[in-house]
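[Q] Does anyone have a clean structure-token version of this?
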Amino acid sequence: MDALLKDQGIEWKERDWEIFGASGIGVGGYKGYFTTGFLEEFRFLADERLEHHVFFPGGANSPLHAMVKDNEPLPDGTEVTSLEEQGVIRTSTEVTGIKKQDGKFVVTSRDKASGDVNTETYDEVIFAAPPSEAIRLGLTGPQQESDPLISPELAKAMENARLVPATKLAVKVPKELFDGVDVPGNVQSSKPFQQMYVLPPVEGSSSYTVFLSYQLGDNAAKTESMSAEEQFDLYVNILKNAAIEKPGDPAYEKLKTLGGILEQGKDKLQFKAWGREPHYGAAFKMDGPMQLDNTRFLWNSLLEKPAGVVFANEMNTAEGGFASGAVNVGILATQGIAVKYGGELPSNSPFHQAKA
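[A] Here you go.
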């Protein structure tokens, strides 16, 4: 950004950068990830990632739960047994090791409820966890008593993926507290907590869900060691103390009022810190400068007939953290397996696209 501005004879002062750090280009404050590459940020606009978002009142997992339970007959009348009924979805099960022996994949897992350890053999493995989990399990490096699981080049690309931490803090606030009160529904800042927004009301609900804090990158790293209660108290105090910064300013008085309203939801906190979440290690991938070629390599690996473990997570795409990236990579991974076993794909299949 600095270089592009200077090319146009524009030089921002510290105050200009502070404003940009608070507002960004529509995805909340940018101060926490100024080290992210410009091309990565530009894709937010070019791909229209922020347009036409859809709110799922049942939560983002609701489509997945519906898919697992789906037993509707196919259009030709063929009966379908749901994934749930087949028992192929295991919850509270932790994969502890993956090795390749005699052309087969040997997968060890542990039932976290009972502690039982199971070892099973498979012809193929599609690995949908983040790169950090692949590294933890040893998939990107040599393992004793195992053939290589992926090529050295792909292993290096997985290890080079730049992962970004994030935290999200939410509360439920009674609807009536907002009645007749003029307060902002969105706050963006270069201070801790980056951005706050109020979700649309759900029909029949007595509360608003408010995301007090959605922090990314450096912003998240600075506060994720704090508990949900500590983060909540700090954020409310920042809002209330804003009025002290500019006494008599109506806009800052609104922030103080908003802090008082949000405080009423203190007993209904929900907090997520993806950097601390087991098996995540981060929330998503965002390229730094000079990392575009690495992302291209990861994407191109999905356009080849698989020779080892198939990595199918959105962090292998240029849309880390977005549902579109997860859907794209899921389709490509599935089609890659089909091709490996002699299946035919439609002529317009995304698997046939030119490599970047």
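[Q] Thanks! Anything notable?
[A] The chain has twelve helices and twelve strands.
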